[in-house]
Fold these 2 entries.
Entry 1:
Amino acid sequence: MSDTLKRAGDYHIEVHDSPAGLAADAWDELLAQQSHPTPFMQHRYLLALEQSGSAVARTGWQAQFVSVHQGQRLVAAAPAYLKAHSWGEYVFDWAWAEAYQRHGLAYYPKLLVACPFTPVPGARLLAADAEARAVLGQALVTLAQQSELSSVHLLFATDAEREALHTQGWMERTGVQFHWQNRPEQPWLSFDEFLSDLQRDKRKKIQQERRKVRDAGVHFEVREGREIRAADWDFFYECHQRTYAAHGGSPYLTRAFFQALADTQAEHWLMFVATLGSERVATSLLAIDRRQRVAWGRYWGCTQAISCLHFEACYYQPLAWCIANGFLRFEGGAQGEHKIARGLLPSPTGSAHWLAHPAFASAVADFLARERGGMDHYLDELNDRSPLKRSSTD
């Protein structure tokens, strides 16, 4: 179901309460035109989140996808959600919500432009050109105003998207993740060659950690795409549940969601399965894009506590695979300074925010200015901790 939001010149704007209200081919064609597309923004991925019951109104994610049309042509679109909480976002605004509450104001629902539960930087405001992107940004604010929402938030967006919204008065926020980059001019040919470019103490530590896993008798199998069997997905989800249970929670994503990935998006998934003797003891799941030669670390879990198994499953096995397959980048996911010592270096991320209340908007702008100064200093400190030898960094 869709509602007409407004007309802006030659543009016709609609709001959809499900991604199913938008043609998959038109959405994916628009995504392919962006500078930083990812599999997580494909129509089938977003639809799987809804149809599996993972991102729906019952869980606090009510779809309000915004589309911009010129005649019959889709020229811009964004995955927007009415949010009743701030879980599953990875850009933290809990303090803002508490401040609203202390002043007797409602922070929720808010409008969130993001891929649910997926802190992966990439295109969010899909647009055929800069003008269509500007119309889309304005449409998001209009939707928030007409629905009397507190705010709009765009998470893990591209530089171009944030710059476009900045000109419309949105506020920018900087975060950090940890990504591995292959050498552009002379890519590493093996994991051992990569290790040889690390400082001696870091190299020794990685070798010791890998040796502990080998000495424990753990072996790994790698399965890609349709090679990942139903039993592998079942075991993966068992491990996934255990990871959340260890932290006193339950998974955001349902087993049906991962089944949908296996059925409709198999070419983008890579699974590492660890075995001890004849028993499977751990698994990690990566998303991959062979055309862009990029991999994303997503989820992991284990059934036994084995020293350094997490590092092997989540970093060393994926990095070795990426190097062997000529990949250019491996993104290790949200947070985790421990990744630096393993060759994943700090990479800034960005979000954009619009608040309806003028006084709160001013206060948040002051906070973000202070936070930005601290983040610049933090990034400098992190870069100083690079494990790469100086010659390799240069």
Entry 2:
Amino acid sequence: MLIKPTRLKLIAGVLAALPFYSAASEWSYSGHNAPDHWAMLDTNGGYATCAKGTHQSPIDIPSASATHINAASASLSFNYQRSPLDVVNNGHSIQANVQGDNSLVFQGKTYQLLQFHFHSPSEHLYNGKHFPMEMHWVNQAADGSLLVVAAMIKSGESNTELEHIWSKMLPQKKGAQVQIGQAQAPDLSKTLPSTSKHFFYQGSLTTPPCTEGVQWVLFEQPLQLSEGQISAFRHIFADNHRPAAAINQREIDED
């Protein structure tokens, strides 16, 4: 896919803002640089939203009180496919940077898939319950706005699509990379839960700078990974989740 220069500039700006693309980040999930201290790590105030923001993510989803929206599912469609991946250990997660034309449409707006990554345990909770892992697909619209799709992961059968990545050996050390060609890569459309309702809410990045204005779409149905697949990830990242933030009277919709 050819990318126009204006789009290249836009992507560069978003990648600079997303901590998953930044090798210079000093934040972490434990010790003096843990989530409670993120706002203080940038002396220029760039992480202030992590403490002062009122629409932060993740949250605990109270499914019983979610507002039912009849037409919400019809406003969401995916155009994900098998695409080459650059899988990297960025020091915070295992992240797969996606090549090729992968997109979704939400409420008439098109977003391009930039990358997907994993957290353990899950960052979001459903009715107070954590899951062993959570997967995020990060998507960006032409105007720079972000939409993150999330699915919880539970222990069960081996995930045959994600095994395309696991079988290549997850990068063990920070900075290590594995490139996966299209023929060996997972079909990204099949990494999504096959049938599921969704939760929708307005939130933020779950990592510094905790930027707000992010549209979240969460599958209610979890994905499955085998105990071996979950253990392989946890061997590298035993805990890389941000604790849940206050909902602060935000509306949570369900289709």
